[in-house]
Protein: Thermonuclease family protein
Organism: Sinanaerobacter chloroacetimidivorans
Amino acid sequence: MLTEGHAKLATYPPNVKYTEDFTELQEEARAEKKGVWAYDSLSQGSAEGDREEETSYIGNSSTKKYHRESCSAVLKMNEENKVIFQTGEEAETQGYEPCKRCNP
Ligand SMILES: [Zn+2]
């Protein structure tokens, strides 16, 4: 019995075939940036916080002025009056004027 068991172990080493397949799949997935490996690139992206600053302009739909995000007028602005613009040009085509204080 024991001998037979050992023989079986030797002939079919556990997990070797499985491990080979698994490694292969991992490499495939990594190459295609799929599955778990996709999280690698996500966690590396630290630019998330930087994007919040000075990348857009805030318009006031009440006064029809637009401001830099850092302008003190934005802090006082009603949330419901806030309009986000990606560029100053975009704001002006919609009838907004640049704020004289922050000069966007
Ligand atoms: Zn302003």
